[in-house]
């Protein structure tokens, strides 16, 4: 640390000075205000057809630029939002923001939005989704909702009903992070998924690892095909992995090799040109603002 910088000054955000609990409390209060203060924004990452390099859609990924702490990962603040009752508000804001953006893209480009299990199990979710579609004028079949196996853990009869009502609305459903949870296979028969997103832990570096990863991916693709579902391989970064994923027959690819999450304006440019090229990123980290 720079000599004298902050010495003797009380630094509110220095974690070592605070108990974990009060640090969390501070972050929670900050998050509560983040939407109104315009600190949250949505980034969009292209999802590409495996056969060509056509952009089929984008996944909306929420971002938080904290005024003092810089960029905070959604892996950190989404769980916080879930615990402190903010996920509904943030989730609805992401959904509406993403649909507003998608309304500016060519009509065949989809938008994928992540839904927390808490949002999904909210009895009002179908109305929230339907209102957001009406408000933005986006065709329901352009919206893909990404959910994880977590939705089944709090299962009640609402879950089945929600699946049916969302399908009636015409939106698509994707099972995210497939392969990482418990008894994934059981969930596949319970819900009318349109797509399986194969978790990055199977995909990244698959070409250089043992053949186990490719055997697992191949099995998931075969399973998905016989259930009439698409497959998206997440986390493809290198040409070797891209080559392997294509060979294994996944229908869609998402990963840094085709593009990192970008701001709305840049996504719009990509959506209009409708093609991206495989670049094979050396730097595997998303740039920090
Ligand atoms: P996810 O839904 O599985 O999203 C994919 C994550 O993988 C994103 O991380 C994306 O930036 C990252 N990724 C994509 N391709 C690559 C790659 O080639 N290499 C590497 N290293 N990473 C790649 P991100 O944006 O940090 O989001 C993390 C998680 O946070 C998401 O995982 C999702 O579970 C959650 N999340 C993000 N936005 C939202 C949201 O709006 N609502 C909810 N409920 N959860 C969200
Ligand atoms: Mg996702
Ligand atoms: Mg995922
Ligand atoms: Mg994930």
UniProtKB/TrEMBL annotation:
Residues 24-275 form the EAL domain. The keyword Transmembrane applies. Keywords: Membrane, Transmembrane, Transmembrane helix. The keyword Transmembrane applies. This is EAL domain-containing protein. It comes from Sphingomonas telluris.
């Amino acid at each position: 640390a720079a000599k004298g910088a902050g010495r003797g000054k009380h630094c509110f955000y220095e974690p070592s000075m605070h108990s974990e609990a009060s640090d969390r409390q501070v972050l929670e209060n900050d998050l509560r205000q983040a939407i109104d203060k315009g600190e949250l924004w949505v980034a969009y990452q292209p999802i590409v057809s495996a056969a060509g390099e056509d952009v089929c859609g984008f996944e909306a990924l929420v971002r938080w630029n904290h005024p003092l702490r810089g960029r905070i990962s959604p892996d950190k603040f989404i769980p916080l939002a879930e615990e402190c009752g903010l996920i509904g508000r943030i989730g609805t804001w992401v959904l509406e923001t993403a649909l507003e953006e998608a309304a500016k893209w060519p009509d065949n480009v989809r938008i994928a939005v992540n839904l927390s299990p808490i949002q999904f199990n909210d009895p009002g979710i179908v109305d929230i989704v339907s209102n957001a579609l009406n408000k933005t004028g986006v065709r329901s079949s352009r919206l893909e909702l990404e959910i994880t196996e977590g939705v089944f853990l709090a299962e009640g009869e609402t879950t089945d009903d929600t699946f049916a009502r969302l399908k009636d609305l015409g939106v698509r459903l994707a099972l995210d992070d497939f392969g990482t949870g418990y008894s994934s296979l059981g969930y596949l028969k319970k819900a009318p998924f349109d797509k399986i997103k194969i978790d990055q832990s199977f995909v990244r570096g698959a070409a250089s690892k043992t053949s186990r990863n490719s055997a697992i991916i191949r099995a998931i693709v075969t399973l998905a095909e016989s259930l009439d579902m698409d497959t998206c391989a997440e986390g493809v970064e290198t040409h070797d992995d891209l080559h392997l994923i294509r060979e294994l027959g996944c229908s869609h690819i998402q990963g840094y090799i085709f593009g990192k999450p970008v701001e709305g304006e840049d996504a719009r440019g990509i959506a209009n040109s409708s093609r991206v090229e495989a670049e094979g990123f050396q730097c595997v980290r998303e740039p920090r603002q």
